[in-house]
Inverse folding.
């Protein structure tokens, strides 16, 4: 196809379902798992608390919880429900599952340092406030987009854990969240579901904030090798 | 349509007589008001089709959402009740083929439709497999019409479709484009290939096809299916708040849907327009455009001028 021909396409030409179908996904998944989504809500609230503990095992649990959340929403929401109407969602769904498995395997490494209070509060806000964006968009309280089930909230709540990882691992873990945020933002924009743009925007804001308040390498023994500080002579 | 004898009988009985009152050459003349739907002959066989069909792009891609599948079934039911039969789909349209199949099953309507699908794969050797896969999803033994989607690998697919037609595996073959793309190439295909159908975009604002493709199709005896009759809904967003012209009634137009659709189906080269909708009330409006008076050539010019001025 010629370049000029490609230019004749608009964003809307690549979205082959309507906003009604997208918003029904949130309702359908809530109906399918009822009442077990309450466990995911509790798990979501536990996540920032575990991540800010000084002992290592709670932080390992936080990573494992994040992994389970990625697998859960990747398979159930993306592959089972979203994929049949949007093929790329199936690919993203399996990428979510892979990312979740990776997080489970990484749990032994835990978080290098505990989460600060400000980031923990941001995490709780994501878990409690962000789900209502889908309700605002649909006008239906059954569309609540919960952590561990809806990708937007799951991504936004867990990027703050990824931002705390050593440099290489950090960006490896951020590949799927960033790609998903871009993809979902374009989808929501072309469907005119503007409230849902809050999901990718929140994920990116939290990521930027988390990167800015990340501990410097000299603050963390685990991060020294990621960015050596020439001013600090190690024994 | 699949069991030819029964289906041909049903559609033929319903439409055969309509041909007498709705030849494309008579477009602009008054059909018996409020009764017979506009029908058009397929030039290659003379078989008549209702002038309004149904597209499924976006609207029928609802996945496994049973509530929406049921609702789309009601939309299809309304379409059939109002005299429609041409249903157009594509493997590109996500779950649309499955939803059409489920709706046809519920309505027990497989022998009341003119089933049109597309071949959409870059692999020119997969024509038969994709046609068979689509037929399974619709729940029918074969399609009435198979079209090469957006000219993708059209040489290979068309060769296979010709062979399938010769063997009776499909009744008609065609080729499609949309959004006004690749018209020069499409014109060359119409000129050089033996087609039954061509599908293209044509509406009151996108009138590029009037210059060459529609006259060429008419001259070559190729039926024309028109997609995007509402420009993906943007015609409504743009004009619905405006009043219809005060002469609209004389052209048999009472709604903007009728305005847009009657403009299309009153073109002598057009066989059928395939609007898509998710709503029963909109389906009723669309199908109403298939009845009553059609605008004549002068009124068509006034229609185009009216929307241009808005």
């Amino acid at each position: 196809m010629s370049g000029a021909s490609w230019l004749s396409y608009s964003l809307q030409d690549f979205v082959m379902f309507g906003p009604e179908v997208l918003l029904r996904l949130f309702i359908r998944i809530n109906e399918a798992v009822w009442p077990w989504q309450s466990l995911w809500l509790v798990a979501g609230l536990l996540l920032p608390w575990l991540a800010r503990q000084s002992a290592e095992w709670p932080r390992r649990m936080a990573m494992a919880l994040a992994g389970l959340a990625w697998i859960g929403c990747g398979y159930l929401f993306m592959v089972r429900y979203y994929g049949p109407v949007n093929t790329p969602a199936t690919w993203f769904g399996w990428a979510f599952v892979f990312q979740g498995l990776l997080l489970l395997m990484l749990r032994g490494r835990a978080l290098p340092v505990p989460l600060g209070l400000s980031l923990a509060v941001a995490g709780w806000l994501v878990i409690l406030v962000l789900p209502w964006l889908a309700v605002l968009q649909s006008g239906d309280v059954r569309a609540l987009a919960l952590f561990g089930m809806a990708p937007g909230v799951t991504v936004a709540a867990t990027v703050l854990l990824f931002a705390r990882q050593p440099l290489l691992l950090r960006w490896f873990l951020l590949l799927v969240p960033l790609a998903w945020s871009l993809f979902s933002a374009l989808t929501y924009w072309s469907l005119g579901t503007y409230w849902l743009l809050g999901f990718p925007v929140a994920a990116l804001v939290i990521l930027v904030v988390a990167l800015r308040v990340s501990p410097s390498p000299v603050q963390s023994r685990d991060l020294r090798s990621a960015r050596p500080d020439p001013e600090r002579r190690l024994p | 349509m699949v069991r030819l004898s029964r289906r041909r009988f049903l559609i033929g009985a319903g439409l055969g007589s309509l041909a007498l009152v709705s030849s494309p050459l008579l477009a602009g003349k008054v059909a018996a008001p409020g009764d017979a739907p506009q029908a058009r002959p397929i030039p290659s066989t003379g078989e008549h089709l209702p002038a309004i069909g149904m597209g499924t792009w976006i609207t029928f891609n609802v996945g496994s959402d049973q509530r929406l599948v049921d609702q789309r079934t009601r939309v299809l039911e309304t379409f059939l009740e109002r005299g429609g039969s041409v249903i157009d789909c594509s493997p590109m349209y996500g779950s649309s083929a499955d939803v059409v199949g489920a709706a046809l099953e519920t309505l027990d309507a497989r022998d009341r439709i003119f089933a049109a699908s597309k071949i959409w794969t870059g692999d020119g050797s997969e024509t038969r497999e994709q046609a068979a896969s689509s037929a399974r999803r619709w729940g029918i033994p074969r399609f009435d019409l198979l079209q090469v989607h957006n000219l993708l690998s059209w040489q290979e697919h068309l060769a296979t479709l010709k062979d399938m037609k010769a063997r009776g595996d499909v009744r008609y073959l065609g080729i499609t484009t949309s959004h006004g793309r690749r018209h020069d190439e499409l014109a060359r295909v119409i000129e050089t290939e033996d087609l039954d159908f061509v599908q293209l975009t044509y509406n009151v604002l996108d009138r590029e096809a009037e210059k060459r493709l529609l006259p060429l199709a008419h001259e070559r005896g190729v039926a024309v299916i028109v997609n995007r009759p509402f420009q993906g809904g943007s015609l409504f967003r743009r004009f619905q708040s405006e009043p219809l012209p005060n002469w609209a009634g004389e052209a048999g137009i009472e709604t903007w849907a009728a305005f847009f659709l009657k403009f299309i189906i009153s073109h002598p080269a057009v066989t059928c327009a395939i609007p898509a909708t998710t709503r029963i009330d909109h389906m009723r409006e669309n199908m109403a455009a298939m009845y009553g008076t059609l605008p004549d050539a002068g009124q068509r010019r006034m229609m185009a001028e009216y929307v241009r001025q808005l």
Observations:
- Chain B touches chain A through 20 residues (CB under 8 Å).
- The beta strands of chain B are 39-41, 48-50, 54-55, 86-88, 114-119, 143-148, 170-176, 197-201, 223-227, 272-273.
- The first strand of chain B starts at residue 39 and ends at 41.
